Amino acid sequence: MSTSDTLQAMHAYADEFVALRHDIHQHPELSFKEQRTSDLVAERLQSWGYQVERGLGGTGLVGQLKRGSGQRRLGLRADMDALPIVEQTGLAYASRHQGVMHACGHDGHTSMLLCAAKALAESGRFSGTLNLIFQPAEEYGTADSGAVRMMNDGLFTKYPCDAIFGIHNMPGWPQGHLIFHTGAMMASSDKVVITITGRGGHGAMPHKAVDPVVAAASLVMALQTVVARNVDPMGMGVVTVGVLQAGRANNVIPETAHLELSVRSLDPKVRNLLQERITELVHAQAKSFGCTAQIDYQRGYAVLINTEQETEFARQAGLELLGEKQVVPQGAALGGSEDFAFMLEHCPGSYLLIGNGDGAGDCMVHNPGFDFKDGNVVIGAAYWKLLAERFLV
Questions:
Q1: For 334-391, how does the pLDDT look when each residue is reduced to its tens digit (9 = 90+)?
Q2: 69 alpha-carbon distance from chain centroid
Q3: Are the beta carbons of 299 and 278 closer than 8 angstroms?
Q4: Please, is 332 exposed, middle or buried when counting C-beta atoms within 10 Å of its C-beta (0-12, 13-18, 19+)?
Q5: d(CA 10, CA 120)
Q6: Which of 79, 163, 30, 41 is CA-nearest to residue 372?
Q7: Cβ density class 77-92: b for 16+ within 10 Å, e for less
Q8: What are φ and ψ of residue 330, in 5° steps?
Q9: Are strands 163-170 and 73-79 parallel, antiparallel or unpaired?
Q10: CA distance readout (Å), 120 to 342, 344, 367
Q11: What confidence category does residue 186 fall into, taking pLDDT thresholds of 50, 70 and 90?
């Protein structure tokens, strides 16, 4: 079967798996609560002949299919969880769960991989071991996310992989285009919670108080120098103060001020530098105003680093399937984060993007008006099938 035939043949599955995508979209589930989705995935994989193990990372599962005498082992991963967002799409298949929606396209990622799973079971030409990983809680946002819990439950011990690949839709690129990136592709993401403590008092007698608000205000400005003056200009760092809370009355100097930061980088060394400098600045700024500070520095997702050999392999599969006009060989790195990074710390592989539209009405992910493009189910599934057949030889 030629490459063009592979893509054309996948259209026979379109109606079934677009309908499945709509069904998943109607029944979104938050991180570690993806019970219905996990049931749906497991039932279908088992009906197509996959050996299925459930309960990895809570609601995660792996479907394994062995064929021929090949010794290579491939991992393909899809995420399943939704977000705590009130959907505003007005679609006929909009979320039936108030306050929860698939605003990041994980319904599409799951449907793409399931579509490929059926096609590979029915007509896949490969020799080796195929491990399909359906992961919970990618949106969890901490170092205890779905990827980590699946690995802690023995994911790569039970299902070793010579390489692992993942895909995510991305608005801002033409629908169906594939975007690749060798090296650091997505940023680390850390949360920093700071409490500055002074001494409360009357707003008319500030000399008898120690004002944590002034210390907090000065700290906000000082933090901007970390990236500007400590990070190599050729590097990347982000320090965002997203929360600044203090006091409830205009004539009262409060006892404490509360700040929360989002800290990101595309280099593990820069990540360490940011933590070091932020910690030093917080204590120094607080002390300079007569206050004390407490810091809870919470390391979240790691830098996502695509390995060179596996990314080139993935890129060539994309070119074979779609041609140069629909492939971006080296797209820009992203400031967002993804817990697939943890899997790539344990196994070589690559994470790629599939364009979700670049028109005026194509909003970004994590938006109440977002929807995954149905046409990507077929393209993504055809890509997974071709990648598996080229890898498992």
A1: 999 999 999 999 999 999 999 999 998 899 999 999 999 999 999 999 999 999 999 9
A2: 34
A3: no
A4: exposed
A5: 11
A6: 79
A7: bbbbbbbebebebeee
A8: -145, 85
A9: parallel
A10: 27, 24, 33
A11: very high
Judged by phi (left if over 0) then psi (alpha if -120 to 50, else beta), residue 137 lies in left
DSSP string of 243-291, one letter each residue: EEE--SSTTEE-SEEEEEEEEEESSHHHHHHHHHHHHHHHHHHHHHTT-
**What is the average per-residue pLDDT within 295-302?**
98
Angle between helices 375-391 and 106-123 (to 10 degrees): 50
Whole-number Å distance between alpha carbons of 194 and 275:
13
Q: Return mean pLDDT, the chain.
A: 97
Query: Measured on CA atoms in the order 84, 88, 89, 94, is the torsion positive or negative?
Result: positive
Which pLDDT tens digit goes with each residue over 191-246? Answer: 999 999 999 999 999 999 999 999 999 999 999 999 999 999 999 999 999 999 99
What is the radius of gyration, based on Cα positions, of the chain? 24
Sign of the CA dihedral 286, 292, 296, 302?
positive
Q: Which residue matches tokens 């205000």?
A: 217
Two tokens, residue 5: 């035939």
CA 266 to the chain's CA centroid? 15
Q: What is the dihedral of CA 248, 254, 255, 261, to 10 degrees?
A: 70
DSSP bridge partners of 298: 191
String of DSSP letters for 320-353: HHH-GGGEETTPPPBSS--THHHHHHHS-EEEEE
User: How remote is the C-alpha of 381 from its chain's centroid?
Assistant: 19
DSSP codes of every residue in 74-109: EEEEEE---BS-------TT--SSTT-B--SSHHHH
